[in-house]
Amino acid sequence: MSRVLVVDDEAILRDAISEALRRAGHSVDAFESGRPAMDRFAAESYDLVISDLKMPGMDGMAVLEEARRLAPDVPVVIITAHGTVESAVGAMKKGAYDYIIKPFKLDELELLVGRALEHRTLSVENEVLRARVAETNGEAVWSAATRDVYQLLERSATSDATVLITGESGTGKEVAARTLHRLSRRQAAPFLAVNCAALSAGLLESELFGHEKGAFTGAERMRKGRFELADGGTLLLDEVSEIDPGLQAKLLRVLQERAFERVGSSQTRRVDVRVVATTNRDLPAEVARGRFREDLYYRLNVLPVKLKPLRDRREEIAPLADHFLKKHKKRASRGAMKKLCEYDWPGNVRELANVIERASVLCPGEEISGEMIAPWLEGQARPAQSLVGVTLEEVERRVIEENLKACGGNREKTARQLGITSRTLRDKLKKWGADGGSGAGTTAGDAE
User: Fold this and answer.
1) Pick from 134, 160, 214, 283: most CB atoms within 10 A?
2) SS3 of the chain
3) pLDDT in tens, 239-273
């Protein structure tokens, strides 16, 4: 789930954007002014910022400059009116990812958000790729587990069979897909990626297969889809488990026959594309629940590649941390490095990169201390407690209460950490008589 920060002083537009992005599967925090939004941005990690250009006080240009200073790799999308397009173009020259002109359709914004988040993912994971192929004292910065994966990718690269890459969020699934493409005979052809979780079913169908002019409202010109554009190369279906069931049948046909039709067309087109899919979900379990087609799962899982989380390849933590620190011209104290190496990194390499970047921005000197990073390393190991004789409901209550406390009462953050919805969390707290409202409503993301 991607985290998006929305800043707009118009309540109606702010609420509409927030609701649309939540329906698309994103976590959203929304603010009516720039200063409190940037205070939250400095304290927490986000994947995208969407800001109106004209606002009282801290305007969109100032939000852009502050966001770029705090986290240069987080894309910023500017909302502008027709009369201020020139200013929006100026914002892009200062580092904004893109701009969108009011009035706009929410599906247009969703598509732009999907592309911006894809850009963000590529930026972070390309850094990971460079870090892993870097050399330290003549030896590659790889654990035995990563070397095994690389060798599997080398063998898989000789084939055109579909590859399914699984692993937790932030483990480098897209890096593995790009490595596979680079090692294959298709390396000179396009490598394209689609974030299946970032787009609605209708937008994703158009993104994958393209559409003809007039195929639907807003289709003002013909557009080629990713399958067509990736002909001869590799297409990555990121988070393939999030594809709508109705669209899964069309995807299955492309994998089986290498043929498809653009939306609004009856002309069959054939392509030569190697498909690589990634997911952080248990697909067999999704199949058992009826959420994912079994025949599509077997078609994707011809060559399975499983990536281990960073906590299971701890020998990579210190070299990766050093790589990110050098990028920011910083170093870690012995105590800080010890904390980094002992932490379990539930967000994997992406979380490590974010923590190093945040510490580098906020650290006044060249050396980052353990005291500085300690508050950001949530979920530290706790002494084991016996659960003999404890009911499942009591265990669940303990887990929720401890996570809620660790998240400072922020219910949306707690729900995200536990892998449940904010509504489920609210219902459980209400059942236990703990729904007193403290911490609730502190962010726009608490509402569903």
Assistant:
1) 283
2) CCEEEEECCCHHHHHHHHHHHHHCCCEEEEECCHHHHHHHHHHCCCCEEEEECCCCCCCHHHHHHHHHHHCCCCCEEEEEEHHHHHHHHHHHHCCCCEEEEECCCHHHHHHHHHHHHHHHHHHHHHHHHHHHHCEECCEECCCHHHHHHHHHHHHHCCCCCCEEEECCCCCCHHHHHHHHHHHCCCCCCCEEEEECCCCCHHHHHHHHHEECCCCCCCCCCCEECHHHHCCCCEEEEECHHHCCHHHHHHHHHHHHHCEEECECCCCEEECCCEEEEEECCCHHHHHHCCCCCHHHHHHHCCEEEECCCHHHCHHHHHHHHHHHHHHCCCEECHHHHHHHHHCCCCCHHHHHHHHHHHHHHHCCCCEECHHHHHHHCCCCCCCCCCCCCCCHHHHHHHHHHHHHHHCCCCHHHHHHHHCCCHHHHHHHHHHCCCCCCCCCCCCHHHCC
3) 999 898 889 999 999 999 999 999 999 999 999 99
